[in-house]
Fold this protein.
Amino acid sequence: MEDSSATLRVIFGDQLDIDSVLLREADAKCDLIWMAEVEQEITYVPSHKQRIAFFLSAMRHFRDELIRRKYRVHYHELSAQPSCDRASDFASLLKQDIQRYEISRIVVVQPGDYRVAVMLEDVADTCRVELQILEDTHFYQNIAEFVGYARGKKSLLLENYYRGMRRKHGILMDRDGQPEGGSWNYDQDNRKSFGKDVRKLDFHPWKNTPDGTDEAVLRLVDERFARHPGSLSGFQLPTTRAGARRMLRHFIQYGLPKFGTYEDAMLSAEPFTFHSRLSALLNVKLLNPRECVDAAVAAYHEKRAPLNSVEGFVRQILGWREFIRGIYWNFMPEYADRNFFGCREDLPELYWTGRTQMNCLKHAMAAVLEYGYAHHIQRLMVLGLFALLYGVRPREFHDWHMAMYVDAVDWVSLPNTLGMSQYGDGGVVGTKPYCASGNYINKMSDYCGRCPYKYKEASGEKACPITTLYWEFLHRHERKLQSNMRLKFAMKGLERKKADAKEFELILKRAKDVRALVKEAKL
């Protein structure tokens, strides 16, 4: 006869926090810790092989740590053969075990996915058990606090929110209550391209050796999910708490000192440059945001990293990460279906294959396919930019992002993709669409010099597709964009372009040709 337990404490794959309130409140002898690997969570979007491997290996390591700490753990593990699984979806497995263990109460930490939260409520109602949702103490701010902050505001500006968080938590503040160094942010110092400096820089990338658990999972993924996108050869992320902390220390020593200055720069030969790649570890909670912020601030005070780098890193975590989580829960579920520009295009095939002659897209997609990663400018100003200009449905772009990036969790992906990248929310997250011509990519990268397309040209067979589509985008949405003060100079530029009617007709013709090439996978 099975042991019975009144309380089932459910841990999801993005909640691998050994200091979680769920575990702190658990009765290690009586409560049952429940975790599950299920096919549905891997296939509802066609997940990148490395995304699958990272989550499964991190979960298995976490399970083993719980067992070492004497918790009662019930863990569903995927096998190489789908026919051996008890169920392919989370809800079915959970319902079976509620009955099997005679559960009267489910306890969870707030999920990071609205879809999962709805599923839990449905399971609890169907099985007639109590559902207790605990506040997620991993974050600096809880959801109710953000909702209160947002209430009554006509617009939600990151800068205002970020300053408030700095003040509240006393981070990078001097004794007089002013920002360290006299400025709230150092964006103006963080937009340098590599240029000739690259010859003098040592990127010192993080390298990780898979352990036995990692290798077993890699074999499983290679066998069971062979048709999923991406490669397993570049698997480098740590999947344990100890490994995550080592990677943080590595970034603080080698990446942080130059991170700020070059955070917006792109380089063909270095997909990571000085970026931390800690986002996946933060998003599954193998790292805590406080330890990351504290480590960076300590490096500044100990003169191991300059203020512009430290402030830029802190802003990403204390500002942006907290802000978009608040946006997600404040506006869901209707937020997911917003489509400000009414975009209708399918996501181009190149986003799955990486096959294109466009050098910027080729290099960004090579990083995604090889590592399940691209840094924020590659995501926003290459991959996101092309999707925006082409007119991809924002929700479809989000689904692709969820599939292809190791660090993608719904609460963080949706506001970043649908909101900031595709402007599908009409200005909730960002105050303007992030649109640009090929000139921006040329300025911030070495991509354009080796590209068959000419970034300065908007018409003709050699015209850069991004430059062409940029002008078509402004023209297509002119009525919606003309009132946006942050696009004032762009719209003036459009006026000048349209003054030469014959030339502008050639631009529109080139745009039509580009769209045909995209659909034929010949761009």
